[in-house]
């Protein structure tokens, strides 16, 4: 190139740079392109032209020009840094971080490059790189006020993630220590405060947990998540009204959050504060339909207005959020079965003084050990009760998994080489149904604890009967239905029962017709309670005997009754008692009234065992058909209604006909005597035959 051309090109490049610095991009581009026409191999001009094109909106061509310059000068740190800044400005943070890191290989002492690496790495969630880069940024530019904040935030994130990892592994003390370090970096980080509080609560450190929650909501009074988690803690501690206050605050702060609305609704159902529920129900339904929140399927079973379709969609939404492994793949279940007895595992946290144990103890004891090898897989608290010991003895093997992290628990269960794994919890409180996604047995079954579908691809069958889940209802369930004759529910014939009490002992009128419902108050809807009150109006001798599961619901139910003209002494509340004491008083009732849309399950069984007939309203969904299943099996199918009018008519007929009352009472009295419902040897033979046919 001649000296004249070179000088002319240099002049154009200088003019282009002046235009570029003055943001006259079109003029700068014109100068660079003319100069490159004279000096086409000039990498500086090529790179500057690329920057101008990039900043003018032609990012693709601009990036290509800058990279072409880099191909000529690959060690030019200033080129790398310039490209990184351009990429950062248009939000290509991962690419920007890569270029900043490459530039720092050649220019490690430039604070601006460490700043860019820290900020771009923060945008892509690379806390480790952010932390390291921000430390260098601070060292090289100690007067830059932004560097310390970025460094502290990244340090907090690193420690927080370590805490989450240790928490998941079950290393709780290490997790608490990591959360503490995270809060040293960022004392006001609400997510870290709440995670630490949640773990303290799970560790049983209630006082420390409460202090941590209080600190979080004090510093962040407008943080809905902090209020929600504090509410869940209050519920676990038995402070329902405190929980309600924080749930209401969470729902006000984040009215679009379906999860907050669902838990607030459930507490209002427990408290029988029905006037406030309508809007919440709409929000819950919308959240399920839009799959915008992880709505607990159990709550939806008893929600007024629930439907089978809504319940299945909610369960499927929930199972997708649980899914972390490809556990539904059929190939996971293919194996060569070793010879010998069928190996059956029962998974639950309720092998203790619990309704599930009361129902199935005789059935477990009746298993044919010449054909079946049984495993109790317990992740619940050992309550040291007689029932706990009896349950443990009913299994050939009993594994305690309550302290095991998930990875250890699934490894131990997987090593058992089970043929069938039966989940007795489903989506009830404290469950670990998510363990089944690891395909712990070739056949995995949902049974007894959860009255509905789990919506999970890793659960193969649902055990039911022709009443609780008719063949035409298969569409309601993701599982294939496995039918038992009679009823799907086992029932112990011999149960611990204290000596009978008297009506005087229970504050019941001696000459009254006692209508009872010992279901939890969340199952009582305004519609069904309205039917009960109408029945009291029709029969002056009748009283209503309910379980006082909480004093605030008692107050609300009395108030509603008073507005209906029912004298307060006709609504009688019974205190909670251990099972043996409860069964002793149950026979004082004349008739049990079932709830809807979620029936009494063990509650219905208890009433029939005590010789008390039950009137039920049978709906479409599994949870609204359980009592009907038991009643048909017990020979009391004429007490099953299909709408509220028929329900009312059945009870009215019973109230007015003493002969009918005696006849139904006599049939109910046979439940624990001659009824096939309590024939657990027959039940377990049918049960075993069905299991063997699957493997």
Automatic annotation (TrEMBL):
Keywords linked to the UniProt accession: Glycosyltransferase, Repeat, TPR repeat, Transferase
Pathway as given in its UniProt record: Protein modification; protein glycosylation
Enzyme class of the recorded protein, top EC level: transferase
One GO molecular-function entry: protein O-acetylglucosaminyltransferase activity
Keyword Nucleus assigned: no
Pfam family, one: TPR_16
Stretches assigned to the O-GlcNAc transferase C-terminal domain: 337-488, 500-686
Segments annotated as TPR repeats: 9-42, 156-189, 224-257
EC number: 2.4.1.255
Organism superkingdom: Bacteria
Family, similarity comment: Belongs to the glycosyltransferase 41 family. O-GlcNAc transferase subfamily.
Official protein name in the record: protein O-GlcNAc transferase
Annotated source species: Propionivibrio dicarboxylicus
Upper taxonomic lineage: Bacteria, Pseudomonadati, Pseudomonadota, Betaproteobacteria, Rhodocyclales
């Amino acid at each position: 190139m001649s000296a004249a051309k070179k000088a002319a090109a240099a002049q154009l490049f200088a003019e282009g740079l002046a235009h570029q610095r003055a943001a006259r991009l079109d003029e700068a581009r014109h100068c660079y392109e003319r100069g490159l026409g004279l000096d086409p191999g000039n990498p500086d001009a090529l790179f500057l032209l690329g920057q101008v094109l990039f900043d003018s909106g032609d990012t693709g061509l601009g990036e290509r020009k800058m990279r072409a310059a880099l191909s000529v000068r690959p060690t030019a740190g200033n080129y790398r840094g310039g490209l990184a800044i351009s990429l950062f400005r248009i939000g290509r943070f991962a690419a920007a971080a890569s270029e900043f890191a490459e530039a720092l290989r050649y220019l490690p002492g430039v604070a601006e490059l460490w700043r860019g690496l820290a900020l771009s790495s923060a945008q892509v969630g690379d806390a480790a790189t952010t932390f390291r880069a921000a430390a260098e940024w601070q060292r090289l530019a100690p007067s830059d006020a932004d560097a310390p904040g970025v460094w502290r935030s990244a340090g907090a994130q690193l420690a927080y993630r370590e805490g989450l990892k240790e928490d998941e592994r079950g290393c709780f003390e290490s997790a608490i220590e990591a959360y503490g370090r995270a809060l040293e970096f960022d004392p006001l980080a609400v997510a870290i405060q709440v995670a630490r509080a949640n773990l303290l609560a799970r560790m049983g450190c209630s006082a420390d947990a409460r202090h941590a929650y209080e600190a979080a909501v004090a510093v962040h009074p407008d943080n809905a998540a902090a209020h929600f988690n504090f509410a869940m803690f209050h519920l676990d501690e038995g402070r329902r009204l405190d929980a309600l206050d924080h749930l209401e605050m969470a729902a006000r702060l984040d009215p679009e959050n379906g999860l907050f609305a669902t838990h607030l609704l459930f507490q209002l159902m427990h408290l029988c504060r029905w006037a406030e529920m309508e809007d919440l129900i709409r929000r819950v339904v919308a959240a399920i339909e839009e799959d915008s929140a992880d709505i607990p399927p159990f709550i939806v079973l008893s929600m007024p207005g629930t439907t089978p379709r809504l319940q299945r969609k909610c369960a499927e939404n929930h199972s997708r959020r649980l899914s972390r492994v490809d556990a539904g793949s059929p190939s996971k279940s293919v194996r060569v079965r070793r010879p010998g007895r069928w190996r059956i595992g029962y998974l639950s946290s309720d092998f203790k003084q619990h309704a599930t144990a009361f129902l199935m103890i005789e059935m477990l004891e009746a298993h044919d050990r010449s054909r079946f090898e049984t495993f109790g897989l317990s992740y619940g608290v050992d309550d040291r009760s007689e029932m706990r010991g009896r349950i443990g003895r009913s299994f050939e093997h009993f594994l305690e998994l309550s302290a095991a992290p998930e990875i250890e628990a699934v490894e131990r269960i997987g090593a058992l080489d089970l043929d069938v794994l039966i989940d007795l919890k489903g989506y009830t409180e404290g469950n670990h149904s998510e363990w089944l996604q690891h395909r712990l047995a070739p056949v995995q079954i949902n049974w007894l604890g959860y009255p509905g579908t789990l919506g999970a691809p890793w659960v193969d069958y649902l055990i039911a009967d022709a009443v609780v889940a008719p063949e035409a209802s298969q569409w309601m369930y993701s599982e294939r239905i496995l039918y038992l004759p009679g009823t799907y529910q086992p029932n112990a014939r011999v149960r611990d029962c204290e000596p009978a009490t008297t009506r005087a002992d229970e504050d019941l009128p001696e000459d009254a017709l006692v209508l009872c419902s010992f279901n939890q108050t969340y199952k009582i809807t305004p519609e069904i309670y309205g039917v009960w009150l109408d029945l009291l109006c029709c029969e002056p001798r009748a009283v209503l005997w309910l379980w006082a599961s909480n004093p605030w619901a008692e107050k609300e139910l009395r108030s509603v009754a008073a507005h209906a003209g029912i004298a307060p002494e006709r609504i009688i509340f019974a205190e909670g008692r251990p099972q043996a004491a409860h069964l002793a008083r149950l026979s004082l009732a004349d008739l049990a009234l079932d709830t809807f849309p979620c029936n009494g399950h063990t509650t219905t069984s208890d009433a029939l065992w005590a010789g008390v007939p039950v009137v039920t309203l049978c709906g479409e969904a599994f949870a609204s058909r359980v009592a009907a299943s038991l009643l048909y099996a017990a020979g009391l199918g004429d007490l099953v209604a299909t709408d509220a009018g028929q329900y009312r008519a059945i009870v009215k007929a019973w109230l007015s006909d003493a002969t009918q009352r005696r006849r139904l009472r006599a049939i109910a009295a046979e439940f624990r005597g001659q009824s096939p419902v309590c024939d657990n040897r027959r039940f377990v033979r049918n049960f075993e035959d069905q299991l063997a046919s699957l493997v």
